[in-house]
UniProtKB/TrEMBL annotation:
Keywords: Disulfide bond, Glycoprotein, Hormone, Secreted, Signal
Record-linked PROSITE patterns: SOMATOTROPIN_1, SOMATOTROPIN_2
Pfam families: Hormone_1
GO molecular-function term, one example from the UniProt record: growth hormone activity
Localization in the cell: Secreted
Species this chain originates from: Amphiprion percula (Orange clownfish)
Signal peptide: 1-23
GO biological process, one term: positive regulation of receptor signaling pathway via JAK-STAT
Family, similarity comment: Belongs to the somatotropin/prolactin family.
Gene Ontology annotations for the cellular component aspect, listed alphabetically: extracellular space
Protein name stated in the entry: Somatolactin alpha
Domain of life: Eukaryota
InterPro entries reported in the protein's UniProt record: 4_helix_cytokine-like_core, Somatotropin/Prolactin, Somatotropin_CS
Amino acid sequence: LSATVIQRSVWALLLWPSLLTVSMPLDCKEEQGSLSGCTSISQEKLLDRVIHHAELIYRVSEESCSLFEEMFLPFPLQLQSSQAGYACITKALPMPSSKSEIQQISDKWLLHSVLMLVQSWIEPLVYLQTTMDRYDHAPDMLLNKTKWVSDKLISLEQGVVVLIKKMLDEGMLATTYSEQGLFQSDVQPEMLESVMRDYTLLSCFKKDAHKMETFLKLLKCRQTDKYNCP
């Protein structure tokens, strides 16, 4: 391993416990399975916690993607991946893409867009944990980060569902959104293909995690300064 990879891994190992301690709890489900755990929190505080969760998820997804590149993907393969036309699994979702489109959509669509993205990634991230367990010499740091993001994504889903109830006065939504054909995990690819596929998943999730954070921060801005949001 290069000195740079080892140095970054050491720093990540040192910073990882502090990242866990600053994460505000967002577990909404009680033992009975209801989402009443978050309903007692004010709308403003819940939105702050949801945003904080999204920020951490995006940050850790960036770290995971960089670590995966350094451990398993030489630069020529990174170029090949970017040129190979691997499509993100959420490409078919009706998401606003340009800045003008994002500014024009309603608060309701911002929330539902976040929920669609969150729920679309729950199954793929579980798959990613399974497939990376088969790698030789996969660092525990990368496996732990992937599992942490997967767990926190479920907590984020719960928080967004309750937020929709509070802000839009809508009934509790089913938290099992999935687009048929978005993700197929029944075929086991060859090792190189598996590495490329997993890298694509990580890269696409990082982009979508940034979208979630952006949408939620725009929503927060609209609550406080509606006419001066970027």
